[in-house]
Design a protein that fits this description.
Structural class of chain B: mainly beta
Number of helices of chain A: 0
Number of strands of chain A: 11
Largest sheet of chain A: 6 strands, mixed
Strand content of chain A: over 45%
Helix content of chain A: under 10%
Helix content of chain B: under 10%
Radius of gyration of chain A: 13 Å
Largest sheet of chain B: 7 strands, mixed
Distance between the termini of chain A: 41 Å
Distance between the termini of chain B: 37 Å
Oligomer: heterodimer
Order of helices and strands of chain A: EEEEEEEEEEE
Strand content of chain B: over 45%
Structural class of chain A: mainly beta
Largest interface: A-B, 23 and 23 residues
Radius of gyration of chain B: 13 Å
Shape of chain B: globular
Order of helices and strands of chain B: EEEEEEEEEEE
Shape of chain A: globular
């Protein structure tokens, strides 16, 4: 069964600090991996999309990595801001129907 | 910047009633999707739609659900006879193409079935 597991479930960090969120997946065949940011009560917003051949991709203060061999990805946030407080969702596209499989997300709270 | 819009933002309905959730995808996009998110749980794929027909659907998308593109702009999700467990946030998304193209999500419709 296609699954996406994320850790930690939740995280509290001080404003200005860095953090790294983890994602493991078992989706096969693999097409691409996406990281989304979801503010409470809003739709997910795409941060990065990586294909099999990409190891790292950056979007401002967000840097995603992908190890397709170990089926792991990480999202690194540098110099966190209060507005970074949100749920960060790892999403893998693939499987027999190339549909999106979502993780449960990591709830990040950036405190002043 | 173009965005996906959804109406209503919140819908309350009684069990057994029919509801129609509406979405206006980004105008030049060709692929349309519905997802749902039960409170506190992960987002789940319901259905994808391309060229005026369903291209993929999940096990959740049973005979109670249907989708339609009644005109050139709207994309609707109909739930024929709502159940308590249909209470969730429903997100519409659209993309220019399938595969690795980015999906743009709407703000969601919160459906509450009483």
């Amino acid at each position: 069964k296609n699954q996406v597991e994320q850790s930690p479930q939740s995280l509290i960090i001080l404003e200005g600090k860095n953090c790294t969120l983890q994602c493991n997946y078992t989706v096969s065949p693999f097409s691409n991996l996406r990281w989304y940011k979801q503010d409470t009560g809003r739709g997910p917003v795409s941060l990065t999309i990586m294909t099999f051949s990409e190891n790292t991709k950056s979007n401002g203060r967000y840097t995603a990595t992908l190890d397709a061999d170990t089926k792991q990805s990480s999202l690194h946030i540098t110099a966190s801001q209060l507005s970074d407080s949100a749920s960060y969702i790892c999403v893998v596209s693939g499987g027999l129907r190339s549909t999106l499989t979502f993780g449960k997300g990591t709830m990040l709270l950036v405190s002043p | 910047e173009p965005e996906v819009t959804q109406t209503p933002s919140h819908q309350v309905t009684q069990m057994g009633q029919e509801v129609i959730l509406r979405c206006v995808p980004i105008s030049n996009h060709l692929y349309f999707y519905w997802y749902r998110q039960i409170l506190g749980q992960k987002v789940e794929f319901l259905v994808s739609f391309y060229n005026n027909e369903i291209s993929e659907k999940s096990e959740i998308f049973d005979d109670q659900f249907s989708v339609e593109r009644p005109d050139g702009s709207n994309f609707t999700l109909k739930i024929r006879s709502t159940k308590l467990e249909d209470s969730a946030m429903y997100f519409c998304a659209s993309s220019l193409d399938s595969g690795q193209y980015e999906q743009y999500f709407g703000p969601g419709t919160r459906l509450t079935v009483t």
